[in-house]
Structure formats: structure tokens, C-alpha cells
Write a structure and sequence with these properties.
mainly alpha
């Protein structure tokens, strides 16, 4: 009888110890994985936020530089117009220089290309003569 009790007691005790160890491992190990995943997620979020800030900074500085470029261009135009007024020998030369300076600013936008007169869509095959065999004809391309 003692032998049969031992046969039942050892597996039962092993089962209880296994369940307790499994419970402890289940409580301790999964915490490591979510923490690592959370840290990775936080790192990716931080890099993304940094990237967004860099993009905003880049476009703000680009806008500032374009404003400076526009102002510099206007200053060059004014300087050239002043030079044309001051340095031109006669009125006709002065008018020509000023017209050339302001011609770039007053150039009308390019006209659109005119659409083709023929409204037929392009073909994806070569046209053939009325009585000539087509490409799918069994005698096409063969010499007689």
C-alpha cells in the first residue's frame, strides 16, 4: 500500500511543482519581451518625431532662403535699372536697357501646345494597304 501511495504521490508532487514553476516563469519571462518591444516602439517613435522636426526645420529654412533670394534678385534688378538710368549715354539706349531688364518680368507665360487636328487615337499596329495581307495572315512576310 505504501508503494501505491508513492506511485501516486510522486507524479502529483511533480505536477504541483511543475505548475508552480510554470506559473513563476510565465509571470517573469513575458515581462521582459513586452518591455523590450515597448522600448523598441519608443525608440522608433522618438526617431520618427526627430525626423518630422528635421523636415519642418528644413522647409522653414528653405522658405527663408527663397525669400532672401527673391529680395536679392529684386536688389539686383533695382541696381541694374539704376545703372541703366545713370550710365546710359542717350535716351534711346536707356530705354532699350530698361526694356531689356523688365522684359523678363513681363514675359507672358508660355502658350500651351495646340492639340492635334486629327482626333484619331494612335494605333498600336502598322497600317496596311487595302488589299495587302495583314500581319495575322498566314502568307504575311513570305516571299512567293
Amino acid at each position: 500500500m505504501e508503494h501505491s501511495l508513492l506511485v501516486w504521490l510522486l507524479p502529483t508532487l511533480a505536477l504541483v511543482v511543475g505548475v508552480a514553476l510554470g506559473f513563476l516563469v510565465a509571470r517573469l519571462v513575458p515581462n521582459a519581451a513586452p518591455n523590450r518591444t515597448q522600448r523598441q516602439l519608443d525608440d522608433i517613435q522618438e526617431r520618427f518625431d526627430s525626423y518630422q522636426n528635421e523636415v519642418v526645420t528644413h522647409f522653414n529654412s528653405t522658405a527663408t532662403l527663397v525669400k532672401k533670394l527673391t529680395a536679392s534678385y529684386q536688389e539686383v534688378q533695382d541696381h541694374l535699372a539704376e545703372g541703366a538710368n545713370r550710365l546710359a549715354l542717350d535716351e534711346q539706349t536707356r530705354q532699350r536697357l530698361l526694356a531689356a531688364l523688365h522684359a523678363d518680368a513681363s514675359v507672358a507665360p508660355r502658350e500651351r501646345l495646340t492639340p492635334p487636328r486629327n482626333q484619331e487615337p494612335p494605333r498600336d499596329y502598322a497600317p496596311k494597304a487595302p488589299n495587302a495581307p495583314g500581319m495575322l495572315d498566314e502568307h504575311y512576310g513570305l516571299k512567293k
